Amino acid sequence: AQSVTQPDIHITVSEGASLELRCNYSYGATPYLFWYVQSPGQGLQLLLKYFSGDTLVQGIKGFEAEFKRSQSSFNLRKPSVHWSDAAEYFCAVGEGAQKLVFGQGTRLTINP
Amino acid sequence: KAGVTQTPRYLIKTRGQQVTLSCSPISGHRSVSWYQQTPGQGLQFLFEYFSETQRNKGNFPGRFSGRQFSNSRSEMNVSTLELGDSALYLCASSLGMTADTQYFGPGTRLTVL
């Protein structure tokens, strides 16, 4: 079965600093990978996804992620975080049609 | 285009009762998936419906069931509620093809007392 690991439960960064959230997956074939963000009391919003092709994927809100097959990783990055980026971030792998397997999430806190 | 809507947003039930949650997908989407989110277990897939047929099912007991109507709206039902069923229930809709983006609703917060 597929699995997703997000090693960092909670990360704190200062506003304006760079950010990298880690994601490792376990999947036999070429994975479909996603990053979602969830603000308190809200549903999930898609930041970006990898399906095939270019391994560096650009998303919304200035986020990007890089797919590295050799490391089974799909880390999310942002060069300069804003206070509004404080939220919980979920990495997910698609299993079959329309089933997502999620990591446990990383809670991001922004220091002013 | 209107997003995914879920009703009700909040629900309080007691043990042993049953509950029905509703999800209206984005217009034109034929797939609806349901997820349970708890602090302990995280986000877990319940089931997915496509064109009124359950196409995929997660590892949940038979107390959890769902259906989809011809207009793609979906309902999920939980019978004989247990305290551990307290969770945020999220539904997501998509066009239904592999790797299609799933768009999530705001969720229904179920509390079982």
In short:
Chain A is mainly beta.
Architecture overview:
The complex is a heterodimer of chains A (112) and B (113). With 112 residues, chain A is mainly beta. Chain A has no helices and twelve strands. In chain A, β8 and β9 form a beta hairpin. Chain A is globular. The model of chain A has no long low-confidence stretch (mean pLDDT 93). Chain B is mainly β. Helices cover 0% and strands 53% of the residues of chain B. The chains are: A mainly beta (112), B mainly beta (113).
Topology diagram in text:
The complex is a heterodimer of chains A (112) and B (113).
Chain A: E1 3-5, E2 10-14, E3 19-21, E4 24-26, E5 32-38, E6 44-50, E7 56-58, E8 64-68, E9 73-78, E10 87-94, E11 100-102, E12 106-111
Parallel strand pairs in A: 2-12
Antiparallel strand pairs in A: 1-4, 3-9, 5-6, 5-10, 7-8, 8-9, 10-11, 10-12
Chain B: E1 5-7, E2 10-13, E3 19-24, E4 31-38, E5 42-50, E6 53-57, E7 64-68, E8 74-78, E9 87-94, E10 103-104, E11 108-112
Parallel strand pairs in B: 2-11
Antiparallel strand pairs in B: 1-3, 3-8, 4-5, 4-9, 5-6, 7-8, 9-10, 9-11
